[in-house]
Amino acid sequence: MRQFAPKRARHDASGVVGAEVLPFIVLVFVGGTLMFAQAAAALDAKITAVAGAREATRTFVEHRGPRSGDAVDAAVAAGTRAMSGYRLSGEASVLPVGAARLHRCEQVTFEATREVPRLALLGGGWSPVTVGARASETVDPFRHGLSGRAPCGQ
Question: Is the CB of residue 75 less than 8 Å from the CB of residue 89?
Fold first, then answer.
């Protein structure tokens, strides 16, 4: 007669996730979701800043009238209106970079900035992120209503 060795019980635990791993998985998903939401908010603010800077520059260059001060005021108002149309929270500003003069062939640059509030988890009071954009254009050398000659081609 043959003797057989007793069968050993096999304990196969492959594919089983222990309860200690579940909090880690939840933390990774929550953290990833918050990072994605923060990146999306920063992208929205960047798009808003680009629109505000572009609209301010365009309004300045196309302003009717010879006074630079009036053109700057109209440009800042137009850029701020363009940024407020996106209805995002946070501070927004539009300002000229350097001296904005309404002269033929003058290069004009406006900068728009927008603050993005950070997503607070567990009451964290982090400072907001500031996102900015610049836009430049040249005043038309043949524009009607401006005095002087066009120095662009010289």
Answer: no
SS3 track for 115-154? EECCCCCCCCCCCCEEEEEEEEEECCCCCCCCCCCCCCCC
Which tens digit of pLDDT belongs to each residue from 58-78?
Answer: 999 988 877 888 999 999 999
Cα separation, 16 vs 130, whole angstroms:
45
Cα separation, 55 vs 7, in Å, equals 81
pLDDT band with cut points at 50, 70 and 90 for residue 19: confident
pTM: 0.76
Joined together, the tokens standing for residue 42 give: 């920063």
Mean of all residue pLDDT scores within the chain: 83
Q: Tell me the longest C-alpha to C-alpha distance in the chain.
A: 120
